[in-house]
Write a structure and sequence with these properties.
single chain, mainly alpha, globular
């Protein structure tokens, strides 16, 4: 005989199930991102400046700084998402929310950063090998043919970086939100993030292209535009997470 259920019943565990959305959803995400920014632009700009300064300071350290920056990206990303959650719940955001990832599920978020760093440095290693091989082959061959071999190696390296970067980015795009808000394990969160990106490849491509173009123009005036783009983009990512994961 089954046991009588006790009330209140515990909610079902978050499964990471995602849904397919219309390509036009990207404009809704960006609109929501801009709206969230306007709720409290002072806090957003303060967090954006603080985050950029900290990441640049960490990245100055050769090699180890780059590794540390990749490990910390999911933790700071979770903090930016926590700001979005507070605003969407009608609460007052705080600068301290930027460090929420260091206080909640920090270990799992760091592991997402570890897998992210391994993926990025693995891609960099492949690119280095292809570029070095092309240049070495060109130097050995010499003259016009050698230049073609070297150029071909560089172009092949660029193509491989582009192709290999896509699945890495897809796997970590939603992972901080899934780990921070729902306590998913790092690999499970990355699989769910990758599946969501694959299911919505068109809208995510549009979203990614827009962010890359926006980042290019944001970097022109001494990078000052990043102080605006970073909060709006973070809020838009939060909106996309809420839209694509119905259980959220």
């Amino acid at each position: 005989m089954d046991e009588t259920p006790s009330f209140p019943m515990a909610p079902a565990a978050f499964s990471g199930r995602s849904r397919e959305v219309d390509p036009g959803a990207v404009f809704d995400w960006l609109t929501q991102g801009w709206t969230m920014f306007l709720v409290n632009p002072g806090i957003w700009l303060g967090c954006g400046v603080l985050l950029l300064v900290m990441l640049m300071a960490i990245s100055i350290v050769p090699v180890f700084g780059q590794i540390a920056a990749h490990l910390l990206v999911p933790l700071f990303g979770a903090g930016m998402l926590q700001l979005c959650r507070r605003i969407s719940d009608g609460q007052e955001p705080q600068i301290g929310d930027l460090f929420a990832g260091f206080r909640h599920n920090a270990g799992q978020l760091v592991m997402v950063g570890v897998f992210f760093a391994l993926g990025i440095f693995g891609i960099a290693l492949v690119a280095f090998a292809l570029t070095s091989g092309g240049i070495l082959g060109g130097a050995v061959t010499g003259r016009v043919a050698g230049f073609g071999i070297a150029l071909g190696g560089i172009m092949l390296a660029g193509l491989m970086v582009l192709v290999l970067s896509v699945p890495v980015i897809m796997a970590v795009w939603f992972a901080p939100a899934l780990v921070f808000f729902h306590g998913m394990q790092p690999l499970a969160a990355m699989r769910a993030s990758f599946a969501a990106g694959l299911r919505n490849w068109l809208v995510m491509t549009i979203f990614g292209v827009f962010l890359m173009v926006a980042a290019f123009f944001a970097m022109l005036p001494l990078g000052l535009g990043m102080m605006l783009l970073l909060p709006v983009a973070s809020a838009a990512v939060y909106a996309s997470y809420r839209d694509i994961f119905p259980e959220a």
